[in-house]
Structures are given as structure tokens and as C-alpha cells.
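seq:
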Amino acid sequence: MVSPTRQHRTALVLTVSLSVLFVALAGHLVYIFAESSEGLSARATRQHHMRYPIPATRGRILDARLRVLAGSQACESVFADPKIVEDPAKAARQMAEVLGLDHVTLYRQLAERPDSRFVWLKRRVPAATAEAVRRLGIAGVGLVTEGTRTYPNGALAAHVIGCVGVDEQGLEGLECLFDERLSGRPGEAYALADRNRHPIWMQPDQFTPSEDGQHLVLTIDAFIQAAAEKALEEACREFHATSASVVAMDPRTGEVLAMANVPTYDPARYGAFAVDARRNRAVTDTFPPGSSGKPFVAAKALEAGVTRFGEVIFCENGYWPEARLHDAGHAYGNLTFEQGIVKSSNIMMAKLGLRLGNERLHTALMDFGFGRQSGIWVPGEAPGLVFPLRRWTRLSTTRIPFGQEYAATTLQMAVAFSAFGNGGKVLRPRILRGVLDGRGRVVARLTEPEVVGQAMRPETARQMIDRTLVGVIEEGTGKRGRVPGYRVFGKTGTAQKIDPETKAVSHSRYVSWFLAGAPAEDPRIVIAVAVNEPDRSIGYYGGTVAAPVAKQILEAALPYLGVPATEPVPPASGRTHLVQQDVGD
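struct:
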């Protein structure tokens, strides 16, 4: 039997031991909270809180009448937190069936990145797929709302609009050039989450709203753009051309109403098309203008006083030995200045070049905007090619006047020809009419014409239309550009390209040009058409290949723009007559 005194001592020792243990435990707890509270708190926050990105909706791209050319719609994407997924193999098998993906690949994403807190499984899935993912209820697998770019009109104006990548970042065209404006600013929110990382409570004091992207309002008109693309596609198909481009402008404002190219592509599936098909040839590809460049030099010759309307110029009966120059199969003798333009005489233009001299010829090209970028807000614009004056020769004096030895883009040709329709002014071409914020309020209004030069006097421009350029359409090389009910002015051109192998002028590779404007009394639209390398056996002259393109666009655009016909429209005969094309264009 243990004595009471011994029992008391034993109880006392036990009490002291427990006290020491509690003191040690309390000290350890004090140490934990004193030394590790910040880390533990941060860990708890990470485990029980989620940061949610709030994507901004990408701004729309609209045509001149606010029709949607590019927009965005919400869809869901599937992601995973590998650290939460308890059975990666099982989850991979289940998700593979729903997402239509390889389960081995999914398993690697989940099992080989155990410390990762975020991995994409599949982006932008259909609504039915998203719902199937929810029904699986796999811990650590979730959905997030994203935007996907849509192009309601398919390939319409694709080269102008451009395309975006998988994260809706602009890659080409205006999507790229104005990516910062279109993208907006993403926001973020914090939420309390359960053990499976599912949000259960949003924390309003830790919420930053997103700011949607701005909308671009273009000068492009979808109706005129569609007409241009249709006409260009038909010409390329009929004449087996390698490529083609067209630009339609309002000569009064510099607004680009249409900019089309063949080949084209679908921006929603840009990866399925060759890079070459995505090039905006209207601003990147340069060609010699050929005879379509004659009006620019002719106007400058008038203003310099080296010729006049009505002057008779001897055109050497088709061959001028001194300049080693033919008139493309014609044996013209005496022609008035006006007739020389209408019939497109190379020899007459060469004689005007000798009268002007190289310095004034060079100035003429520069005054009309050749040899430099136009300044349009479109990526990839080429400056064209005008050699420095020091590189010009005596041959240049007689070749420049009919469109050789320099090169221009389709856009440059449209800008230069517009000067005849606006009193001689060279305007900066505009593709953007304005910018709206996410709520539709005006951020920028860009409607004022920007004059960058005066190529000729207003009276010269007016007389060139009335006395030469209308005649090209009515009785000269541009007859296939006639539009019933309207007086059209224009100029044809057939330019020989440089053979890439021999570096000499090719006799099999051509560019067919046509410049046109209407109505002649008060021009509302100017069109430049370039058809590259049509099949020579079918047709290659500008008046044959390119003029019908402009005609189709004008027939659609003029009534659409509300321009009344000024001449009686002859009744349709039900028969089609092909016009024999003069070869001097």
C-alpha cells in the first residue's frame, strides 16, 4: 500500500511535468505565430482564395454605315489546377472523351505539372461541351469565359481588317495596327473558394472591372466592297490572272470606299491559307503604270506651257527612230494633244517628255504622290519607286511620260487619279472614319479631308476630264468602262513587267490597269484596278481586262450612293458585243 505522502509526491511530479509540457507547447505555439504567421496566412489565402481574370471584350470593326465587319462573342474555355486534381489518370480519361482530345496528352498536362496552379485543357469550346465538363464535376477542373473573334461577312475586306491569334491579339491588318485600342483592358476579381477551388463568395472590395475595347468605324462601305471583290474575282477567273487589286475612293474626301485583293482569305481561318494570300496587294505590290500614267505628265505639260489643247503633234506614223519607240502597232500621223491622250500615243507623250525635261518630269511624279507612302493607316504600305533624279538618263526622258521606269501601288494610282476629280488636290487617303468607346460614344472623329499637295490647278483638272479623259471612255481605249446613264472619265494602261530571270522587259508578263471616275460632272468615286499577269492568249490590255472591273463597280456604286443618272439609259438589246481593243493603251 502506497503511503499518502508518496502519492502526494507522485501527483506533484506529474503536475509539474504536465505544466512543463504545456509551457513548452505554448512556447512552440507562440513561436509558430510569432515567426510563421505571415507565411501561414499567405498559404491559407492561396488555398481559400482565387484570383479571377475578367477579360475585356474586344472592340468591333464597323463599316461606314456601322455594319459589323469584325466582332466578338463570349464562349468558354476549359482549364485545370493540377495541384487540386486528385486522380489525374481518371480525370484525363473522362476529359478526353468530352473534349475529343488524346487522354495521354491530357494526363501529362495534369500529372507532370503537379506544382502548377493553371493549365489550359481546351480553348473556346462549344456550349454543349462546356456543360458536359460541368456535369463531370471533377475537382480542379473549371471553365472561364473568353471572347472569340467573329467575321460575319466571311472574307469580306479581309486584307483591310486582318486577323487575330488564339489570345485575340492582332496579327495582321487593322486588327494588328489598332490592337491596343481594340483589346481594351482586362480586370480581375478575388473570390473565397472551397477545397475544390470552386468559388463560393466574391469579395467586392477586391474587384477591378474590365474596360472593353474601342470600336473602329471604317470608311469602307460593305456594299461597295462586296461589289469590288465580286468584279475582281470574275476578272481573275476569266483571264487566269495571278493576282489583282482594286481601290475605290471618294475624291472629295480621300475616304477609301473599297480595297479588295485576289487571292483572298477567311480571317477566321487564317492559318488554313498561304501567307501570300493574306498580303494586302493594294498597298504592298508595285507595278509600272504603263499608259495609265500618261494623264499625270500630260497635265503637267499643259501647266508648264510646253503644249496646249488643240496643238497638233506629229506622231511619226507609228515609229520614231530617234527615240527607238513604237506606237504599239498604230501608225498615227498628226494628232491633237487631246487625240494623243484618247488614242494613248506613246510617241506624243515621249515628245512632251523632251519638252519638259527630266527635272520637271521628276517633279511631276512627286507632285502626284509617287515615290512615297501615302500615309494611310494600313500596315505594310510600300512607297512605290521613283529613282532619284541623278539616276535618270536620256532614255528616262521619253519613257517616264508613258509610264515606264517608275512603279506605283494600286492605292497610289487611285490617290493620284483622284486629283482630277477634286480640283487638283492630292489627299491623304483615309481608311478610318472614327473611333467609339465601349458604350458607343465618340472618342475620335476623323472626317476632315487632309490635303498633302496641289498637283495641278483646278482648271487644268477640269479641262483634262472634259477634253481628254471622258474621250478615253467614249471613243478611245476605255470603251468597256462605259456605264449607261453616266459620263465616266478614265485611262487604260498595259504595262510590261520586268522578267525576274533576265532582268529585261518581259514580252509575256503584263499588268492590266484601268483608272476611272464618275460622274464626270461632279466626281463621287474614283477607281484604280490592277490585274497582274493575265493570260496573254485570252487578253491582257487594260481596256479589255481591267476596264470591266471598274464598270461593274460603278454600276453598283453610283445608284447606291444616290448619284442620279445624267444621261438616258439605252434599252438592253439582249445581245453582248465585244469591243475590239486598241493596242496602244
